[in-house]
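EI: anyone free to look at a 316-residue chain?
SC: sure, send it
EI:
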Amino acid sequence: MFFRVFYFSVGWFYRRIQATHGVPVAVLRNDGTFAPTYDANGNVTEYVALETRNSQLETVGNVVAHYQYDAFGNIVVQSGSLADSFSFRFSTKPYCAILDKVEFQLRIYAPVTGRWMSRDPIGEIGGLHLYGFVENNPANKIDKLGLSKCSTPCPKGAKTMGELLPLEAEILGVEKGCTLYRTNEQNGIPIPNGCGAEGGTKFPGTFLGLVDFTPCCNEHDKGYGTCGKSKTETDREFLRCMTGKCLILFFSPVLYGGCQTMALVYYGAVAIKGGEAYEAAQDGYCRWKQCCIRSDSAPSSSNYPCYWGNCWDWMR
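SC: here you go
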């Protein structure tokens, strides 16, 4: 029977006869067009008729195939007039009913035994157990192409340590080819150091001894060390704090103006020159976690077993 499968992957539609790294959105056959539905694990659970070219088929909108699976991919419930004729089922991969096997691109999987039928394509790089999968830790690691043993991919836009030297990776306990990224999880309480850079130049904490800016400076330091808080927001809070302190001099236009000017100078200093201090505080007070290196060009899988292109799920 002639059929054509439509996939959605990386933002465009393309046609393939065999499964790739996308999610099928429609199956075009000579007896009609059918749309698959999925469960939370990405398994095809139903095929719904979108268009029929055979008067003996159910009407448009009816479910023509239904599947339910156990934890290892065995079909435990199957119903529908066309249930035997669809090959894409468990994990959206081609299923061979004669052999009761599922094709995962580079490896053949046997649901009955819950094991791969062939060795790991990357050999011992994926672990000493050649018939294993991501070191028997699929809850925390993924392997998009069957060529890596990956932990969490680096979030897009997150600050990372970049490509680590072998010695650095060993000291930090990072897998080869992986790196660390900065999270928004707090790791310690920020310690304020008054007005001025820590270990650097200090500035007067008061205006003529009449207005104390030190509490504002301390809150500014804490803001820089609060994970996920933006620099712009922290700097603006700093300015509002200082200008608020100046209000006690409102009775004297000269003193009030001088206090406001000092507040603006301090604000300008942190707004323009405070970027390095902000990043240093975020680096020091935020947790770092391991992730796969993001890259647009595929390095050798033997050198980079945690390469982003191997482990990133395009449909996230």
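EI: Residues 3-116 form one domain.
SC: 👍
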